[in-house]
Amino acid sequence: MTSSPSPEELLPSTRRALLHRLAVAQSEGRTPSYAAAVLRDGEIVWTGARSCVEGHVPEPGTQYRIGSITKTFTAVLVMRLRDEGLLDLGDPLEKHLPGTGAGEVTIAQLLGHSAGLSAESPAPWWERTPGSLRPELSDVLGEGARMHPPGRRHHYSNPGYTVLGSLVEAVRGMPWEEALQREILDPLGLTRTAARPSAPHAGGWAVHPWADAMLPEPSEDLGLMAPAGQLWSTVEDLCRFAWFLAEGDDRVLRAASVREMRTPSVPAETGDWISTYGLGVQIIRSGGQTLIGHGGSLPGFLAALWTSVEDGVAAVALTNVTSGPAPGATAADLVRIVVDAEPRIPQPWRPLPSVDPDLLELTGPWYWGTYAYGLRLAADGGVELEMLRGGGRRSRFVAAGEGRWTGLDGYYAGETLSVVRRGDGSVSHLDLGSFVFTREPYGPGDAVPGGVDESGWRGL
User: Fold this and answer.
1) Which residue intervals define the domain Beta-lactamase-related in the entry (predicted)?
2) Considering the entire predicted model, what is its pTM?
3) Looking at the 3D structure of the chain, how many domains does it have?
4) 325 and 366 together in one domain
5) What confidence tens digit (pLDDT) does each residue in 166-180 have?
6) Same domain flag for 194 and 293
7) What is the DSSP string of 397-427?
8) In this structure, what are the phi and psi dihedrals at residue 443, rounded to the nearest 5 degrees?
9) Contact predicate 226/70, CB 8 Å
10) pLDDT per residue as tens digits for the range 147-197
11) Residues 6+ apart with CB under 8 A from 54
12) Cα–Cα distance, 118 to 144 (Å, whole number)
């Protein structure tokens, strides 16, 4: 009998498919080098690299510049401040960072790129010039920073994340880079992620659009704009960061706050429903999967990190060229290859360790008017409520104590589900945001708002 692979290993056919996808990306994208990695259920299960120089293939620990993936790190720092009670996402910027000229926009709007700020800083092109040319926030925001009414639409803004980096410094009382090191990189063990490169690292290149010729790109320190795109990292470090974005880590940010970051914060553009944005996190639909993460680019470098939280699979793709190889598409394909070839094997069904009789009594059918719902216990002590016909509203609820639960998702996200009892202690009905759920549809004597016709159900 042949032994099956360990849970961490990929099948040889899957590994070859991943290598083939990477090789095609490097060849057709005409990039000097390409590095990638795949993580499954918290373990890096595959790394690969291609290079135009024979015998000089990047290692998994080779640094590349990751551009706007930096924004997700900055967003985590802001969410930490929120969780500590040092600010609220609804606070106007002016409350914590006065004098910017954009003080009425909220912190949440800046995180979700809905603050209405311009996409770029004033000339010269900030990605190819030293940050010393923009020593103050006024140099980053410029005179025409306001493009749209705050909160009305998604408009990607690099200056907006520069402002968030300055917000972190003002509230935390330390430089953005120091806060990043102490609060994210050290706890997560991201030892090869930094604001400046260290060997081994890739050099940035431009490839001529009409000829197979290369030109080195400058690599500038972005100064104040570092929180929008400064970082260097590796496929290994970014895979670990991807797992954090899926699971959270109490040393950095609890799972509930990471889940909040992955929730869409603004409507997608009209006619473009395949992508949207959370709080420092991009959200896309690709190949039937919902992927969260971020892309990044700076002259000489392109990067992408995507995670399918549902499947427990993440992929990172890094290149050292200004344009061409589309690492976002590559990383998404790497996730899809693993998910399609080796779908997640469900954990064995197991009964609950214990069952509260009072909770068990609440399970089964309930009726909101004539709509039939089913209530079942969840393994985490919460409950799940779903419509039994028509595929309508469905939500999960987390226990809030004393016969109450709080909605986690769907129509009832944030709403309170509570048990209403009669004077003798028996259950009368469930109250869900003022909706009354009873054991029978319009049963006689039930606490249905407006009452129930005394003549009861009848035929024509």
Assistant:
1) 28-338
2) 0.89
3) 2
4) no
5) 999 999 999 999 999
6) yes
7) EEE-SSSEEEE-SGGGTTPEEEEEE-TTS-E
8) -70, 145
9) yes
10) 788 888 889 999 999 999 999 999 999 999 999 999 999 999 999 999 999
11) none
12) 7
> Picking from 17-26, 269-278, 439-448, which range would have the lowest pLDDT averaged per residue?
269-278
When computed from its CA atoms, the radius of gyration of the chain, rounded to whole angstroms, is 26
The C-alpha angle 234, 240, 243, rounded to 5 degrees, equals 140
Q: How many CB atoms lie within 10 A of CB 322?
A: 20
- DSSP-derived secondary structure for 16-36: HHHHHHHHHHHHHHT-SEEEE
Tokens of 334: 């790497």
On whether residue 453 sits in a domain, the answer given is no
Per-residue pLDDT reduced to its tens digit, 323-340? 988 999 999 999 999 999
Whether the Cβ atoms of residue 305 and residue 316 lie closer than 8 Å to each other: yes
Q: How far apart are CA 243 and CA 309, in angstroms?
A: 9
Q: What is the C-alpha to C-alpha distance for residues 184 and 97, in angstroms, rounded to an integer?
A: 23
Residue 301 counted as domain residue? yes
Q: Please report, for residues 76, 107, 163, 255, 361, the alpha-carbon distance to residue 103 in angstroms, rounded to integers and kept in the order given.
A: 21, 10, 10, 30, 52
